[in-house]
Amino acid sequence: MSATPPRKRVGVLISGRGSNMVSLAEAAQAPGYPAEIALVISNIPDVAGLDRARDFGIATATIDHRPFGKDREAFERAVDEALRVNQIDLLVLAGFMRILTPWFVARWEGRMINIHPSLLPLFKGTHTHRQALEAGVAEHGCSVHFVVPELDAGPVILQAKVPVLPDDDEETLSQRVLVEEHKLYPAALAEVASGRAKLEDGVVIRG
Question: What is the CATH number of domain 8-195?
Answer without folding.
Answer: 3.40.50.170
